Amino acid sequence: MLLAYRCAFASERVAATAIEANEFPQLAQELGVWAVPRIVIDGEPRWDGAVPEPEFLRRILAAA
Amino acid sequence: MREWFAALERPVELLVAVGPEQTPPAGARDVDFGAEMVKVCEGLAELGDGVTWRVEDEPDGFPRFPAVSIRPDGRDAGVRYDGLPWGYELGSLVGAILEAGRAEPSLRSESLAELEMLDRDLVLDVFVTPT
To answer: What number of other Cβ atoms are within 10 A of residue B11's Cβ?
Structure first.
């Protein structure tokens, strides 16, 4: 989660929100959240699980 | 945690959005999630002068409630926690406060250079659970 937050604080182009899946079950179900952390970019599920910073950056830039 | 908050290099505001009054979700028993969120943020602000908080019912830009926006120098940086940060996830909120309180980003210089290449806005949502 912190990597997403760090990106948002570092770039005005990035917004980052942690969403507590149990409290928003309908949204979690719509996005197929079965494992956490699940990373969703612009409303599209992308991957599950934590990754190192270089890989995190590579993946979000690939999604841009 | 008091030592961490004392080391903040700039003030951090927590804007709590409690949302409209509503029936607690199934399984929530009598828990008022909005009131609990206020308690959490109030408690965090008591740990350091650099952390302040305020409450609004339904501020702009909040699609879900309760939620908290973590704001360096009171500025909306696009960083939120939606839902009540129970248990282990309190660490994510504390981590966001510590990051917001940094004068300089904590990402690697290579990562900062890559972010500079972004030519459009990105919205990252990270689903978490308290355990």
So the answer is: 16
Say which of B79, B110, B129 has its CB closest to residue A9: B79
Please tell me whether the interface predicted TM-score (ipTM) of this complex is above 0.95.
Answer: yes
Tell the CATH topology of B2-116.
Answer: Glutaredoxin (3.40.30)
Mutate to test the interface with B, among A3, A6, A30, A39 (most CBs of B within 10 A): A6
Mean pLDDT of chain B: 92
Asked if B101 and B10 touch (Cβ cutoff 8 Å), the reply is yes
Q: How many CB atoms are closer than 10 A to CB A49?
A: 9
- A58 assigned to some structural domain: yes
Looking at the structure of chain A, the number of domains it has is 1
Q: Which residues in chain B have Cβ-Cβ distances shorter than 8 Å to A54?
A: 108, 110-111
Cα–Cα distance, A51 to A5 (Å, whole number): 14
A16 within domain boundaries = no
